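Hey L., structure's done. Input below.
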Amino acid sequence: MKNQWPHILHLLLLTAPLATSMRAQADDPVALQSDAGAKIDAFIDNFRRSGDRVSRIGDLEDAERHLRASVDGFVSRGDLANAALSLIKLGQIQRMEGKWDAALPYYQQAEVAAQKANNPASCWPASRWRRRICWS
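Output:
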């Protein structure tokens, strides 16, 4: 066991910066939203190239977690415009997974947040998708 301590200490020292950067990102809703967007884009690009929806489904699951956390962060800051954008992206994930009924509440919440933020740029897509789901 004595001989293993240097290896364990080395491993801990190597992983400490990674854990620190992950914690910093968790406190930054902008970084979470950006990371989620990149994961959604990677999923879409892979699907368009290969038609495969299964191999990158983990990207959507990660994006969903990050977006939920970003909504909480934006709301706590009073940034409803960005919260609306994260909610729209959450609805997009549900649609990509074929869960139209699950997408609807995200678009409804996004529309309300965008209206409160007086942000027509987010209000329009939320309203459009909400109406499209309701009419189908």
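The chain has a mean pLDDT of 82. The chain is about 85% helix and 0% strand.

-- N.
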